[in-house]
Amino acid sequence: MIGTTDIIISIGYILFIVTIGLWAGVRKRPDTGHASGAYFLAGKTLRWPMIGLALFATNISCLHLVSLAQSGFDTGLLNGNFEWMAAFTLILLALFFVPFYIRSGVATLPDFLERRYNRACRDWLAIVSIISAVVIHIAFSFLAGGIVLETLFGINMYVSIIAIAALTGLYTIVGGLRAVVVTESVQSVVLIAGAVIITVAAWNRVGHWDQVTKVLTAAGEADKLSMIRPAGDPSGMSWMAVFLGYPVLGIWYWCADQTIVQRVLGAKDENHARAGALFCGFIKILPVFIFVLPGLLAYVLFKTGALDISALQHTATDGKTVTDTKGIYTLMITQLLPGGLIGILVAALLSGLMSQIAGALNSIATLASYDLYKRFRPQTSDEELVKAGRWASGIALLVAVALLPLLSLYQSLFEGINDIIAHIAPPITCVFLLGIFWAKASPRSAQLTLWLGSLLGATVYTINKVYPEGWLGGIPFMMMAFYLFVVCVILQICFTFIFPADGHTKDSSLYWKGCLEPLQSKGWSGVGNYKFLSALLLLVMAVLYGIFR
């Protein structure tokens, strides 16, 4: 439980964000004649700093703060790979996907699939994207946020979730993408500041790095400092699983997921879109040090007796003491921080929760209106599209809350999210990659690959849950994603030769003629050039992996 001062700070922050969101969404702007474009894509006025911060805020939620700290406590720096590998996929987004999306003028990624393939592909991706946004971006975030708020404030989890949902939905549904991006920019700063505070507090309590290595070595757990594990590592996150499996998840998440890419689609121009994506890549270096490392430091403090985790322990039916480490982040907040700072950390947690939900709601509104509603009512006005999007956002909130009891069955929420993504992403990653880089990829092949690949993923996921001890259950989810991706690639290649492309897909504007074509654009001069920034980010990541190998 936290004090009155911290409660006042937390409530004040929520009201501040709601006010900013409403102001950004409803303030008078020049009339472009396209209400839907202003609502869903912020009138294409977003600049690179705002895009980068919004991408980061949409990605990082309360769930990440809580779960990455838990993973740091349990397995060390290992799950930091999800953060650092994102830098590589953001480079792909900036170099190869951004210019294509911006030049084609698409409003949604399903819109791109229809132009490249056919209407059936668009419909399928729109439905899958809406479902994944509700489950992955909203419901899981609700669950993590509800657990934290219940622990800190003693408020019933569902009461706190409904309150946050109502407030976040208010400014998101009213204000559209502009309100989302403006609030996300503010929330990114607050979230990072809060994470830095808890990291510094844990670091000061530990004392120095030698103490970390000394304690871990004495406990026989020095591998917790390694990001790259050998093949066959019991964690299921060997170097092979990370470097083969993550790109399948990452390309879908960062390059082909409407919730994420919508921030890029609202860019002022191609250079702002590219620079914003790369800016986010640099920011993604931070989570290992400010989200994962605090959990590892908490483990060191626990081993030295400086952190009491008895509140997380309970006696199992067999009489053994079991520790539920999901609450380690809130435990660190209450034991390592003084009053006042606790309120700031709660504000940071709320930032992550609200920004994730807001971003997902806006993408759902866009998909539901542009890709579904407008199909059945093609003559609908811009105002009707906005209204349909707002209704879709409200329904999505209700569905997400209804899913909470089912998703709470996962012991690790972070692994639960990635387990689901590993079975959703492969066919989508496949059709996007082949669609952009392979001229022969045909509409019928993409359609069948999406259908059969999604069915295969759902079947494998179901078998693993019903028969967890079966042979499929022994395959790490990262490697499963890679295997499913390989199957999808084979399927699409085979179907392309069985059902070759017609004249529609031979339009050369629908794919790159070669890997170097998107790099022909000169971009900005100086350090802001996208080629320089990409090379610098690659160098930084190579150095970091060299240090923490």
TrEMBL record:
Cell compartment(s), UniProt: Membrane
Membrane-protein topology: Multi-pass membrane protein
Main location: membrane
Top-rank taxon, per record: Bacteria
Any one GO MF annotation of this record: D-glucose:sodium symporter activity
Pfam families xref list: SSF
Record's keyword terms, sorted: Membrane, Transmembrane, Transmembrane helix
GO CC terms, sorted: plasma membrane
UniProt cross-references to InterPro entries, sorted A to Z: Na/Glc_symporter_sf, Na/solute_symporter
PROSITE patterns: NA_SOLUT_SYMP_3
Similarity-based family: Belongs to the sodium:solute symporter (SSF) (TC 2.A.21) family.
Protein name from the UniProt record: Sodium/solute symporter
Species annotation: Chitinophaga solisilvae
